[in-house]
Design brief:
Blueprint: H1 6-44, E1 47-53, H2 71-74, E2 82-86, H3 94-99, H4 102-109, E3 115-119, H5 135-151, E4 155-159, H6 180-191, E5 194-196, H7 198-213, E6 218-221, E7 233-239, H8 241-257
Parallel strand pairs: 1-2, 1-3, 3-4, 4-5
Antiparallel strand pairs: 6-7
Helix pairs in contact: 5-6
């Protein structure tokens, strides 16, 4: 057997051992790096709640204040892992929201794990408006929103249209969505979609408050009371800050009742 000098043996042994240690160290460093990257991704990844609907939900321009869509306070009711992207627009129905490409724009960024809150009806149900949507088409449009959302791995949530403040002469609150509200409920049942009956919730609140006190929730101003409305305004459809927050809080409560995962991310400061 050929003798190997101690020096040569040491050189070969420690070189190979050093290489193995080096490779092992690299593997450990790589594993730590990947772990850090994964943790960073988890920290940076946010769930987005897309809100699609009409003026009762929409963000408002400063010049419209104190008119406030109930989607506006919604921005501040979740923790830092949730982003609220309010795409609702004044005057829109399911048909015009689709025709104008607004739904297509939502789909461009809608991702797995996101949510889409869908509240239409106010403009769909008025035959004299350009936005009018016959009942069968209204249902078809809702189903389009639902199916497209699910195909993206996101969660659709249907909401019935929020109540208008319409009391008759005897002080009885009138249901102003007698057709389109039930259509939303029926569609949610058929498609097995989570439903928030915002119409019923808001009607119950208005009934409890009564014809006069309920004005405090809506954009009701006397002439000269606010510079944005020098002639005053008596709006029984759109909310002020208080009304918008009340509606948003009722929606949040329903998220908890439905046990939706997003309810685990409500802000403690809300």
């Amino acid at each position: 057997m050929t003798k190997i000098s101690r020096q040569r043996f040491n050189n070969v042994f420690f070189k190979s051992k050093g290489s193995a240690l080096f490779r092992g160290r690299n593997i450990i460093i790589l594993a730590l790096l990947m772990t850090c990257m994964s943790f960073t991704w988890l920290l940076q990844h946010k769930t987005t709640i897309y809100m699609i609907g009409d003026s009762t939900m929409a963000d408002k321009a400063v010049r419209a204040y104190p008119e406030t869509g109930w989607g506006m306070p919604f921005h501040y009711m979740f923790d830092s892992t949730v982003v609220v992207d309010n795409r609702a627009q004044n005057g829109r129905s399911t048909s015009t929201f689709i025709a104008e490409g607004r739904w297509k724009d939502v789909l461009k960024t809608l991702s797995k794990g996101d949510y889409v809150f869908i509240e239409f009806g106010h403009n769909d149900e008025v035959p004299t408006k350009r936005s009018y949507t016959p009942a069968p088409q209204f249902v078809a449009n809702l189903k389009t929103f639902i199916q497209d959302t699910r195909e993206k791995g996101a969660t659709p949530v249907l909401l019935t249209p929020v109540a208008r403040r319409h009391f008759d002469s005897s002080g009885r609150l009138i249901d102003t969505h007698p057709v389109y509200g039930p259509l939303v409920i029926k569609t949610a049942r058929e498609e097995q979609v989570d439903l928030i009956d915002l119409e019923k919730l808001s009607m119950d609140l208005l009934k409890k408050m009564g014809p006069e006190t309920s004005k405090l929730l809506y954009n009701q101003l006397e002439p000269g009371e606010h510079p944005h409305y020098p002639k005053g305004v008596h709006d029984d459809t759109h909310f002020n800050e208080l009304g918008a927050r009340k509606m948003a809080e009722m929606v949040l409560h329903q998220l908890v009742e439905l046990q939706l995962p997003i309810a685990q991310h409500l802000s403690p400061k809300r």
